[in-house]
Specification:
about 325 residues; Tail-specific_protease; 2-enoyl-CoA Hydratase, Chain A, domain 1; Interphotoreceptor retinoid binding protein; 7 helices; retinol binding; receptor; 4-stranded antiparallel sheet
Length: about 325
């Protein structure tokens, strides 16, 4: 209770907050208890929010244990390599081939919440899940701390030096610089106190995606005039990857770019129409059908004004009509 809490939010979204990550030995001793009293309560959720905004400590040995519950079974994944300077050794971290209880389905969306206080082992978990493509990171850039710190006395004085003695080599990042020093950059940046609300909005959009795509398919099949291109467009929609979609703007941009590329038709457009609470009401007697022309006036001068507003007529040089 001091280090974690959980609940199921509206929309059947599981929420798990972890403030301190114990080592693997403690997790092993509590494994059955955690699965029964925490994990099983979240397994039936349609999406998961992992809140690490207040997680400031942890043990490297617990990384494979936690990541394994979010990685599909049947395969193991090399998630990190840790270098320890005092012993001049490296330790590879792999997901576990077996776990107590069930793993969280890879087909369900997951969001990790971060803040500027998220540091150490929690940062490594955020980094791994982001590089795996398993989670959308929402919140602030993490602290950029170190995996393991050691306090050393300076000579026989009362002064001490605290410095990092282990570091992540981050194999999932392709051997490039990892999160240490710079922190993990979120996929969606927002103040930490607004991160949960933002995450729930993202999950609501992603939950609506199947219905949105179904309606697009129906519209193409029933109305699109370039009939010969419809099968290719339907195949595109059925196989489109929406894993990176975190906003309506992202969705509209992706759909338009891909649909227009396949159809070779720049007129094929998807738009997000937001409801307008304060939109003006139509004037009494106004034509309710969009796109219709105004009534033709009886007065000759008014007719000429109407025509001039729609047409420009002249004879150019060389007796060319324009």
């Amino acid at each position: 209770q001091r280090s974690m809490s959980y609940k199921v939010l509206e929309g059947n979204v599981g929420y798990l907050r972890i403030d301190s990550i114990p080592d693997q030995e403690v997790l092993s001793q509590l494994g059955g208890f955690l699965v029964t009293h925490v994990w099983r309560q979240l397994m039936g959720s349609s999406a998961l929010v992992l809140d690490l905004r207040h997680c400031t400590g942890g043990h490297v040995s617990s990384i494979p244990y936690l990541v394994s519950y979010l990685h599909p079974g049947g395969t193991v994944l090399h998630v990190d390599t840790i270098y320890n300077r005092p012993s001049n050794t490296t330790t590879e971290l792999w997901t576990l081939p077996q776990v107590l209880g069930e793993r969280y389905s890879a087909d369900k969306d997951m969001v990790v919440l971060t803040s500027g206080h998220t540091r150490g082992v929690a940062e490594d978990i955020v980094y791994i899940l982001k590089q795996m493509g398993r989670a959308i990171v929402v919140g602030e850039r993490t602290k950029g701390s170190a995996l393991e710190l050691q306090k050393l006395r300076i000579g026989h004085s009362d002064f001490f030096l605290t410095l990092p003695v282990s570091r992540s080599l981050g194999p999932l990042g392709g051997g490039i610089q990892t999160w240490e020093g710079s922190g993990v950059l979120p996929c969606v940046g927002t103040p930490a106190e607004q991160a949960l609300e933002k995450a729930l909005g993202i999950l609501t959009l992603r939950r609506a995606l199947p219905q949105i795509i179904q309606r697009l398919e129906e519209a193409l099949k029933n109305y699109y005039t370039l009939v010969s291109r419809v099968p290719a467009l339907l195949h595109l929609l059925a196989n489109m990857d929406f894993s990176a979609i975190v906003s309506e703007e992202d969705l509209v941009a992706k759909l338009n770019a891909d649909l227009q590329a396949v159809s070779e038709d720049p007129r094929l457009l998807v738009r997000a129409i937001m409801p307008r609470e304060n939109s003006p009401k139509p004037e009494p007697g106004a034509n309710e059908q969009l796109g219709t022309l105004p009534a033709v006036p009886e007065d000759e001068a008014a007719r000429q004004a109407l025509v001039k507003s729609e047409f420009q007529v002249s004879v150019l040089h060389g007796n060319v009509g324009y």
